[in-house]
Structure formats: C-alpha cells, structure tokens
Design a protein that fits this description.
- The protein is α/β, with parallel strands linked by helices.
- The chain has one domain: 3-Layer(aba) Sandwich (Rossmann fold), CATH 3.40.50.170.
- The chain is about 35% helix and about 25% strand.
- It is built from 6 helices and 9 strands.
- A 7-stranded mixed sheet has the order 3-2-1-4-5-6-7, with helices on both faces. A two-stranded antiparallel sheet has the order 8-9.
- Helix 1 crosses helix 6.
C-alpha cells in the first residue's frame, strides 16, 4: 500500500492530542501516510513539541498584523506543496480556511469537530465551549464529526461521526475526555480513507468505497 504525504495545521494553544493520534496511527501501521509538515500559528501549541519528538518538520507561521488570511494561506500552501503533501488535516485549527487553500487542496482537506454536526458548530464553537453548550441544551447524546472543508465553518460534507452518551453528572471537562477518545479513533481512519482515494462525494453525501483487498 502506497504511503501518502499529509500536512497538518494547528492554531491556538491546545495540547495537540489529535495530532498525536495521527502520529500513533501511522506508527501502528493503521494509517499509510507520512506527516510531511506541521504548520502551527504559534510556537506554544502542544503539537509543536509532539512534532519535534517525532522528528516531523515544523513551520511556525504566526499571522502578522499586516498579513491577510489569503496571504497566510498562500504561504501555507506553498510550504505544503514544497513538501509534497497531497492531503491537509486540521487538528485544532480555529481560523477560517480561505479559497486559496480550498483550491490548492480541492476536497482534500479534513477537519475534526467535537460534536455531531450540524449541531453545535460554527464560528466560536470549539473546545470546551462545544461541550458546555451540549450540556446546557440537555443533550443525551453528543460525539464527534470528521468532515471535508468548504468555505464556511463546520459546514462541509460529513465523512463520519461517532456518538458518545452524555452521562448524569458530566462536566464539560469529563465529556471532552470521552469525546476525544472517539476523535482519536475516528480521525486517523477517515484520513486513511482519503489518502487511499476511497471517498466519493455525491451532493452532500460522502460514500466510503471498499478497499481493493476487500
């Protein structure tokens, strides 16, 4: 099975556990890919230390006050192309992707969201804010969603979802832990489907084709 090259982008200051899940899935032979480049908006993101521990090339690309989102995405796209990345994975990336990257990686950008989209998505809905909103709404079930990117926040075609029961006494923090367990399982699987060209998009529905060996 061929090994694809993927790029990963992160922003903010999270711990980088989804990035680590990708690294671990590759090490276990479950994801047939190589992380060619990690792009981070700041040095302090947890994924940066994880990348260095795994000898993965890292580019710190802080958004400058005079830099437009389009200019930032141009620099990111150029760096990803230079490393030969064919797929881009967002692993805790909070900025809106511009048409620059969408055109550079058409239907080749994945994101993981900590809720069952289309519920609890959109601008400003990330991290504990999502889990707090789930609890405030009295939901009995939550989960995570892997989707392809489009020009809006959290509205691209859904690749896969995993459900997590909301338990009595849950806090945003306890719910986050259980949702992340599903994120770490689901995201590498969806990346594998994409790098193996097993996703077919029909309108808004994404179908997963059988592997050639199946």
């Amino acid at each position: 099975m061929l090994e694809a090259k993927i790029g990963v982008m992160v922003s903010g200051h999270s711990s980088g556990t989804n990035f680590q899940a990708i690294i671990d899935a590759i090490a276990r032979g479950e994801l047939h890919a190589k992380v060619a480049l990690l792009i981070a908006s700041n040095e302090n993101h947890g994924a940066v230390a994880r990348a260095r521990d795994a000898n993965i090339r890292t580019l710190i690309l802080p958004p400058g006050p005079e830099s437009t989102p389009e200019a930032w995405d141009h620099r990111a796209a150029d760096a990803l192309y230079e490393e030969g990345a064919s797929v881009l994975c967002l692993a805790g990336y909070l900025r809106r992707i511009t048409p620059v990257l969408l055109e550079a990686f058409p239907r080749r950008i994945l994101n993981i969201h900590p809720a069952l989209l289309p519920s609890f998505g959109g601008k400003g809905m990330y991290g504990l804010k999502v889990h707090r909103a789930v609890l405030e709404h009295g939901c009995k079930v939550t989960g995570c969603t892997v989707h392809l990117l489009d020009e809006h926040y959290d509205t691209g075609p859904i690749v896969a979802q995993a459900c997590v029961p909301v338990e009595d006494g849950d806090t945003p923090e306890s719910l986050a832990v259980r949702v992340q367990m599903q994120e770490h399982r689901l995201y590498p699987q969806c990346i594998e489907w994409l790098v193996q060209d097993r996703l077919r998009i029909e309108a808004r529905r994404v179908k997963v084709l059988k592997a050639k060996s199946e």
